[in-house]
């Protein structure tokens, strides 16, 4: 399912049915009429889908990190210590080593696509 929304194509993964804006997810090439798969559904992606290394939620708009893990784009954008190495491709997520391991975030809660998630003890999120 592809829809135009404010000049930003809305894409739906043909496997998991997750929906994203093309530019927000880093899709630079038009996919007109071609099956589209999100990063976690593409060949070579880890199975089963890994949890976000920044929160305990599995699934959603995830991207690889520079250290071989996966994280939600929303989590990476809301956490000040993280950044995107390539902002056009919206990946990989970098800066995980800069997160303070004693008190990981300056916020008590952060917005997430499923609502507000309370912060979990760092040891539960980062192995």
Automatic annotation (TrEMBL):
Q: Which InterPro entries match?
A: EPHD, Histone_Mod_Regulator, Znf_FYVE_PHD, Znf_PHD-finger, Znf_RING/FYVE/PHD
Gene Ontology MF terms: zinc ion binding
Cite a single Pfam family from the UniProt record.
PHD_2
Kindly state a single biological-process term from the GO annotations of this entry. Answer: regulation of transcription by RNA polymerase II
A GO CC annotation given for this chain: nucleus
Residue span(s) of domain PHD-type: 49-127
Q: Which UniProt keywords apply?
A: Metal-binding, Zinc, Zinc-finger
Q: Which domain of life is it from?
A: Eukaryota
Asked if the Swiss-Prot or TrEMBL record annotates the protein with the keyword Magnesium, the reply is no
Which PANTHER family does its entry note?
HISTONE-LYSINE N-METHYLTRANSFERASE ATX2, PHD FINGER PROTEINS
What is the protein name for this chain?
Histone-lysine N-methyltransferase TRX1-like
Species source reads: Prunus avium
Q: Which gene encodes it?
A: LOC110747957
